[in-house]
């Protein structure tokens, strides 16, 4: 009798619950913030922009990256005006590259942009060809070391996007040397699986609009130039792998 009552009660309970136990939906989790590490020279700093903190390519790219991925993006900008590939490596233990390695160890899933090489070329702009060739060789070695170090900084290698150099004064002696520098950038970046953002193509034919060089001897980008650089960087970034949607 007792057994029969138990069976009847269970049957009634099952009917009242619709025959199925309620299923709990797992709580939705927001993806963690994405770290964006900006490295390099005065272009990473935003020199030439009317408001470097908002209108340089670094903050503009951060905002574009956040919109494209649907994630919060935390910016770490280690750029230094006047930085060369040699000074970026440094020997003090606290160089820009040393600091970058520490950031990447804490943020293995990161996006890195790199603007370097312009000051290497400027240092030898009035030097004989032999000195320029030596500077180009040294830059290639340094860039190889920088990219290798960044890739090995964390267990999961970061995505790295390297900017090529634009030429603010086309039709001058700077043409062939800027071209050779960009060939080196593309070759070394490809060796390390880094993407290349073609600043040279973006600025071609728009040098007076995209730089201050037409109005004064200043090779840095205008606000329009920085917008173009941010666009090129985003086009060269695999945003799908970071999407939080």
UniProtKB/TrEMBL annotation:
Q: Which species expresses this protein natively?
A: Rubrobacter taiwanensis
Query: What range(s) does the SGNH hydrolase-type esterase domain occupy?
Result: 39-228
Name the PANTHER family for this protein: THIOESTERASE 1/PROTEASE 1/LYSOPHOSPHOLIPASE L1
This protein's UniProt keywords: Hydrolase, Signal
The region annotated as signal peptide is 1-18
Taxonomy-wise, where does this protein's organism fall, top ranks first? Bacteria, Bacillati, Actinomycetota, Rubrobacteria, Rubrobacterales
Q: Name one GO molecular function term.
A: hydrolase activity
- Which Pfam families does the record associate with it? Lipase_GDSL_2
Query: What name goes with this protein?
Result: SGNH/GDSL hydrolase family protein
């Amino acid at each position: 009798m007792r057994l029969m009552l138990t069976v009847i009660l269970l049957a009634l309970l099952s009917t009242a619950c619709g025959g199925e136990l309620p299923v709990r939906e797992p709580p939705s989790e927001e993806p963690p913030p994405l770290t964006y590490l900006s490295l390099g020279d005065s272009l990473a700093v935003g020199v030439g922009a009317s408001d470097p903190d908002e209108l340089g390519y670094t903050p503009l790219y951060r905002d574009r990256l956040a919109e494209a991925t649907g994630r919060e993006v935390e910016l770490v900008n280690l750029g230094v005006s006047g930085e060369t590939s040699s000074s970026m490596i440094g020997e003090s233990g606290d160089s820009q590259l040393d600091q970058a390695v520490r950031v990447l160890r804490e943020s293995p899933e990161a996006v890195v942009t790199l603007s370097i090489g312009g000051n290497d070329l400027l240092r030898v702009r009035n030097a004989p060809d032999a000195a320029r060739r030596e500077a180009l060789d040294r830059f290639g070695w340094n860039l190889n070391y920088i990219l290798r170090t960044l890739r090995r900084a964390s267990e999961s290698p970061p995505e790295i996007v390297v900017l090529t150099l634009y030429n603010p004064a086309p039709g001058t002696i700077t043409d062939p040397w800027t071209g050779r520098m960009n060939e080196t950038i593309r070759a070394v970046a490809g060796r390390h699986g880094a993407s290349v953002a073609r600043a040279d193509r973006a600025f071609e034919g728009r040098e007076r609009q995209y730089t201050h060089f037409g109005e004064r001897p200043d090779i840095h980008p205008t606000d329009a130039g920085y917008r173009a650089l941010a666009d090129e960087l985003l086009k060269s970034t695999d945003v799908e792998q970071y999407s939080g949607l």
